[in-house]
Amino acid sequence: RTPLHLACASGHADVVKYLVRKNCQLNLADSFERSPLMKAVQCQQEECVAILLEHGADPNLADADGNAALHLAVLSLNTTVAGLLLEHNANIDAQNQVTLAFGKAALSKRCPTRLCFSKWNYLFFQDGYTPLNLAVSRHLEEMVEFLQKKGADRRAQDQHER
């Protein structure tokens, strides 16, 4: 991880601003192929997400599982962050390679980031979900409604044509 990844994960917006002003690379991937933007989204650090997007971070990069930042925002139940991503041209119909299933504890702000988002906490399903498919599959009604209002393709299907 880079200092920018760590600052984003910890919510140190002042450090993120400093690093961005020093022209750090915004889209470098960590060992899970996650960008600093993805870390900020995962950790629900809205101010860090906004700073990165305003300075040109790519919202459509995919991690090792094919998840873009919008997939991670859906899993975090964060419509504010999802909205920021969409305002900066995140692909609302991007398909992942693997969906993630977290327990309720993983979605809790009390869950340590290292545990919540470690590779050992994932349940893998080879489905190719869009953010809307993912929200529907997890019964995230508020997120489903939000994505539909933002124009998500209701006819998009996963790899099983569901």
UniProtKB/TrEMBL annotation:
Keywords: ANK repeat. ANK repeats lie at residues 1-31, 32-64, 65-97, 127-159. Pfam families: Ank, Ank_2. The keyword Protease does not apply. InterPro entries: Ankyrin_repeat_domain, Ankyrin_rpt, Ankyrin_rpt-contain_sf. The keyword Amino-acid biosynthesis does not apply. SUPFAM superfamilies: Ankyrin repeat. This is ANKR7 protein. It comes from Eolophus roseicapilla. The gene is Ankrd7_2.
